[in-house]
Amino acid sequence: MNNGNSRKGGASGKGSNDRRKGGTPSKPLNKARKPKPASDKSAAPGEGGAPKKTGFVKGSFDKRNVERKPAAPKKPSNPDELRLNKFIANSGACSRRDADIYIQSGNVKVNGVVVTEMGHRVLLTDKVEFDGSVITPEKKEYVLLNKPKNFTTSGEDAGDMRNVAELVRGATPTKLHPIGRMDKNTTGLLIFTNDTDMIRKFGLPNQKSFKIYQVTLDKNLRFEDLEKIASGVMLDGHRLFVDEVTYIDDQPKTEIGIKLRTQNVKVVRAIFESFKYDVLRVDRVSYAGLTKKNLPRGNYRFLTEQEIINLKNV
């Protein structure tokens, strides 16, 4: 039977010894501390108040509860406004890159004031002087014509020869120029544009784009001559490489298909004439991926945006 002394002795004696010897403690060591009374919130940090915590407190911020500000409305672009370098390039004076150089050097005026700021925007109605001359921008336009006979790209207008410009005159008020030349007897695809960069590009001798011609001869093309043409032809001391030459299926052997990189129709005729054949007709049926599909002879159409991109990337 325990009495009060035994309890007291147990608490001060045995219990104390047990704790020192590693026995089971009477109270858990990890017991949570009681929360301290809240300090005065008005006290400033360092003056007896609780130190201010700057870390993230769970539950104190919820992205879903934040009121989002409406996005600022996008300023609509003005179709009559464009960058100054593009204005200059559209006029055909030079490329955009070269226009930037002219702008920086102080050779461009807008409404009588010299502009050297890169990215300066102008209106189509503004007066722009480039290197002392007033210029006007033109929208780049591209028209594909299926040229008939008896029209030529030269400036001559005599007899039965008429200029191909007549055939696309109703397409646009913009003055268009043909890419390359065609005589009155050559038919097929011809591109018109006011894009001087593209005209210059396809006028270069080292062409990358393919053109396909259907050639009609006065007699059957011998197979051995076809093989010789396929291996390359010497013209005026220069070797011309032919990408492909073949008979046309279900046609007489006077009908020949030839694939070249040059757009010079005279070269096409010279190839067969060098083998003693007379060329009766030449028809350009494909030009840099463009074809005569759904384009009757004498008709034209505007190129699509994708077709224009393809031509520029050739």
List keywords for this structure.
alpha+beta, Structural Genomics Hypothetical 15.5 Kd Protein In mrcA-pckA Intergenic Region, Chain A, Alpha-Beta Plaits, four-stranded antiparallel beta sheet, 22% helix, 24% strand, disordered N terminus
Descriptive notes:
The protein is α+β, with helices and mostly antiparallel strands and 314 residues long. Among the domains are: 81-135, Roll (Structural Genomics Hypothetical 15.5 Kd Protein In mrcA-pckA Intergenic Region, Chain A), CATH 3.10.290; 142-204 and 293-313, Pseudouridine synthase I, catalytic domain, N-terminal subdomain (Alpha-Beta Plaits, 2-Layer Sandwich); 211-287, Alpha-L RNA-binding motif (Alpha-Beta Plaits, 2-Layer Sandwich), CATH 3.30.70. It has eight helices and 19 strands. Strands 7, 10, 11, 12, 15, 16, 17, 18 and 19 form a nine-stranded mixed sheet that branches. It has a four-stranded antiparallel sheet with strand order 3-2-5-6, with no helix packed on it. Strand 2 (108-110) and strand 3 form a beta hairpin.
State the gist of this model.
This protein has 314 residues and is α+β, with helices and mostly antiparallel strands. Helix content is 22%, strand content 24%. Strand 13 and strand 14 (238-240) form a beta hairpin.
Round the mean pLDDT to the nearest integer and report it.
Answer: 81
The CATH class of the domain at 142-204 and 293-313 is Alpha Beta
Q: Please name the CATH topology of the domain at 142-204 and 293-313.
A: Alpha-Beta Plaits
CATH level-4 homologous superfamily of the domain at 142-204 and 293-313: Pseudouridine synthase I, catalytic domain, N-terminal subdomain
- What is the total tally of β strands? 19
Helix and strand content put the structural class at: alpha+beta
In angstroms, what separates the terminal alpha carbons?
A: 110 Å
The major pleated sheet works out as: 9 strands, mixed
Task: Tell me what the CATH architecture of the domain at 142-204 and 293-313 is.
Answer: 2-Layer Sandwich
